[in-house]
Amino acid sequence: MMRSLQSRLVVTLSACALGLAIVAGFVSYASAFREAYRFQDDQLLQLAALVDTRNLAGADSAMHGLPVEDHDYRLTVQRLGGTFPVTLADGFHTVSTGEHTWRAFVRTIAPDLRIVVAQPTEGRNEIARNSGVRTALPFVGFVPLLIGAIVLTVRRAWRPVQRLADDVDTRRDTDLRGLDAQGAPTEIEPFIVSINRLLARLAKALDEQRRFVADAAHELRSPVTALVIQSENLDRALDPVPLDTETRHRLTKLKSGLRRTRALLEQLLTLARAQSAPTVAATPLTLLPAVHEALEDVFVLADRKQIVLDLVDTSQAAPGRPILCVMGAKRDIVTLLSNLVGNAVRYTPVGGAVGVRLSATATDVVIDVIDSGPGIDADKRERVFDAFYRASDQREARDHGGEGTGLGLAIVRAIVERLGGRVTLHDASPTPPRGLHVRVTLPNPDTARRGHDAAGSPVH
């Protein structure tokens, strides 16, 4: 059974049209056949009325002498008693003479004179059949046209539904706005209303979840920060006191765990802010200072691991090019770049390199962050954007001067999607170590501004 309503409608309506066309064709064929047969009978009757009985034999000989191309179409006029038996009553008869079957009309001229006007049924039937076929033939061409019209009509009727489906498919994961029912068929409006109610409930639930995470992280940040400070004070207080190796190791683990907990809470708060809708309209922001600030945040870790940080702004290499700008708040851009560059530094081995490339196209601003670390397998690149997911043990950074929380790329994707951009992952090199190439594409505000100016400029 077909699950597609569109296909079901097309097949059902096409089958109905085909069935009706077949019935109409047969009815037209039968009607035309009868009319042609009746017309030929009338010809026999009229010919019988016009026959000159004074020269009957000559008339029949003259008719046989006419240049008729097909013998089956010839007419014969003669007295009864020869080819046709004298027992035939007046009127129409179908008579078989052995060689042919005749359609005959018998007429009594005088008591001793009866004539017959006859024609072979082979020719008559062929004429009637041809007439019926020509009458029914238009239906053969009519059916494909009708089926084509049905297909086009059904597809056009379902176009609003397809547009609605395309709108849902192209939405981002965080876009939970209600569906626009304008232009949609009346039959699916209740379905759209139900979906909108579900989206509203889902948006409310997600908002409550984000608010709970943000509130919990905010409430835990102060006591955890206090514990970090107390652990550092305890370490300083016990520094002159000789401690055994196990106690010192436990104290170090305690400090490290508290620092990781504080970092996790900070990342949770950052993720909650990134997933929230902006409270003010985004304005153009110069990109390079935000990049410098993000690099300063990770410079200490990069220096400790002897990693080279390389920044290239290709837009400045071309004279006359405008300064790169993006639409967004500075805090979002710095957070985005800090997480990207921070991840790259954490997961790049000692002595490696991390490069940041800034460029622009006609419509986009592109930020490329490239490291020389172990990279991420292709089948795991989509999942690394999930919160707390780590691609592999290779991407752990605790042996290289830091430890990730599993929230960095989730924060990056949340910010990028809110700014209307996209983020993709690629291999930095085709050979091991493959490294990781993260490309962030954001809308170019210069393009939007030029389009707005062109649309709003007066026409002279």
UniProtKB/TrEMBL annotation:
A single cellular component GO annotation: plasma membrane
Keyword Transferase: yes
Highest taxon, organism lineage: Bacteria
Membrane-topology descriptor: Multi-pass membrane protein
InterPro entries in UniProt: HAMP_dom, HATPase_C_sf, HATPase_dom, His_kinase_dom, HisK_dim/P_dom, HisK_dim/P_sf, Sig_transdc_His_kin-like_C, TCS_sensor_his_kinase
SMART domains, per the entry: HATPase_c, HisKA
Listed transmembrane segments: 136-154
Pfam families in the record: HATPase_c, HisKA
EC number(s) given by UniProt: 2.7.13.3
Chain spans, region Disordered: 424-460
Catalytic activity: ATP + protein L-histidine = ADP + protein N-phospho-L-histidine
Keywords annotated in UniProt: Kinase, Membrane, Phosphoprotein, Transferase, Transmembrane, Transmembrane helix, Two-component regulatory system
Domain Histidine kinase, residue spans: 215-446
GO molecular function: phosphorelay sensor kinase activity
Residue ranges occupied by any HAMP domain in the UniProt entry: 155-207
UniProt main location, coarse: membrane
Protein name per Swiss-Prot or TrEMBL: histidine kinase
SUPFAM superfamilies assigned: ATPase domain of HSP90 chaperone/DNA topoisomerase II/histidine kinase, Homodimeric domain of signal transducing histidine kinase
Presence of the UniProt keyword Kinase in the record: yes
Compartments, as annotated in UniProt: Membrane
